[in-house]
Amino acid sequence: MSNKKVVGAGKKLFKKIAKWCRKNENKVVLAIGMFLLVVISFEFGVLQGQKWQQSPLIIKTSGSFNKQISTDKIKSESDFKKGVAGNETVVSLTGNNEKCIFVANKKSKKYHKADCRFAKRIKLDNKVCFKSEAEAKKKGYVPAHCLK
Question: pTM of the full predicted structure?
Answer without folding.
Answer: 0.36
